[in-house]
Amino acid sequence: xxxxxxxxxxxxxxWSRSGGPLMWRGYDPDLIARELAVLAExxxxxxxxxxxxxxxxxxxxxxDEEMVARYADFLDRHTDAGMATVPTFIVGHMSGENxxxxxxxxxxxxxxVWMVARQAWFVERMTARFHExxxxxxxLISNEMPIYGERSPREKVTPWAQLMVQAVRAGGGTxxxxxxxxxxxxxxxxxxxxxxVRDLGALTDFVGPHVYRMETDIVxxxxxxxxxxxxxxxxxxxxLEEFGVTDAFVSRENAAHYYRQLLxxxxxxxxxxxxxxxxxxxxxxxxxxxxxxxxxxMRFGLTDVEGNPKPALREFREFADVLANIDFPACARPDxxxxxxxxxxxxxxxxxxxxxxxxxxxxxxxQAYVAAREADxxxxxxxxxxxxxxxxxxxxxxxxxxLTGPAWRDLAAFAERGATVYASYSPGxxxxxxxxxxxxxxxxxxxxxxxxxxxxxPITDDEVAVTFTTDFGSLGEGTTLTFRAGGNEHAxxxxxxxxxxxxxVAVDRHGNPVLLRRGHGAGHLVLCTFPLEGMAAAxxxxxxxxxxxxxxxLAAMAGVSRxxxxxxxxxxxxxxxxxxxxxxxxxVSQAAEELRAKPVVTRGRLADLVTGEPVDEVTLRPYGxxxxxxxxx
Length: 633
Known about the structure:
- The protein folds into three domains: about 10-325, Glycosidases (TIM Barrel); about 340-560, Class I glutamine amidotransferase (GATase) domain (Rossmann fold); about 565-630, Immunoglobulin-like.
- The two termini are about 30 Å apart.
- It is globular and about 80 Å long.
- A hairpin with a 2-residue loop joins strand 1 and strand 2 (about 5-10).
- The strands form ten sheets. The protein has a nine-stranded mixed beta sheet, sandwiched between helices.
- Helices cover about 30% and strands about 25% of the residues.
- It is an alpha/beta fold.
């Protein structure tokens, strides 16, 4: 965890409203002092700041000393406010425009030796100037370099990044350093932009996702940044480095809801730092690029152009209070007993696979993550490429087309040792080698599939009614769950099977087996013949949908520990534990209206975090969050 003055990084990306990216030309120290004071008053201890490259390095062998002096004053203003900052070197890209120094003249940022050397020189010199200042909390090499630089292979990008990090260290910088690329690499998104999160994470001290996704479902929207933080965990601290909304796209009330959800949900997903985009509005800069042509960029501020706090900034204040009340630096998530299996096909280019093989993995995993959170499961991602951990009670493999041969055998072995392994069928979402890439689905799951070569078995019902023919975990015999069917002509299909060594536990309205359970050693293998997660991932406005009921039943079967649960899938429960033994429970509402929830506590009781009064039932405002203490009797 990265700390400043004993507190986790919590702040805003910063451009003064005096000029946005051109703030250094008309530098106004008194205004900046006032801007920082507002942020500090709302619980922030950090900004992310930017060396606007054309101004700071006007020639390939010269740094503008006036700009340097102004930045030095900027650092002093942070010290006066009790804050720190993270300087960003290569800027580069900013808010809908790329800003080249005039001397670049189209040179390749990653492959031209002279151009790489000029960047390294700039990074080293600027680090040498400022590394001893107490207001410098860390360093970022770039701002969204995949947008600024040409699309380049990893073989160019990773060495470039390595040289930039080495330049920071050569300049005397000992503070944490990262790349500032947005963590949009293949390991997260399934699309290769040359910036490998895995490779760059090995060079740096933290990973910094930038999340600005357009979605079709509000629960997915509220949980996507959290899911990305889960995927970004390669053993380094995860700082949600950019996230935010513009008044042009969302009302201020809904912006506050969005910030509240992303702050708390990403914390529960392992993030330990947050830097919102951004500190101020820029209505006064409407004739200046990039705001002239990207007018919506003027309204991303946490304060308006007069410096008045917006509702979203007050969410930071409340979040900071929660972090202080629980002593967050001493807290951690409990051990994950449920593994969401990440197939290596998300991030590896196997021979003769398709781009959609990668991105489809992201979509179905994210939907499964939503369902797991709705079931209050303590879920964590487990990457096949790193070797699947063998100590989980429950393994979820949602809408899986592809997994390597050894991984299938590993999962069977985990079940034999006592785990519950769930896999749902999917042929993928395109027509190339369409089908489940598993050589022995029959033997593993105790079925005999009835597939015909080159064809799919389409799901013809717009709603799939699944009725349980026997008790299954928390689902009783006779229970019927109804799923909306989504997906294209490839993905919207099921696996016709006949049970051999498996028990059919649920069927559709046509009598087709939907869920089958096979005892295997001390554990169970569960096959779902419908791509439930893939169907939901393809649909708008779908959550909550009943997959969470199946995950809840699987958790009951597997004996997964869930200290607090809520029956309503619109309220998600999760836990953090303090090293002194204290425990804290989050209740996060996904409802657009106020609701009452009655948490079920396995052992102990819930109490108000401040007063200590017992709490049996909570009232949550729209998209609200309540944090409670979990006390033993």
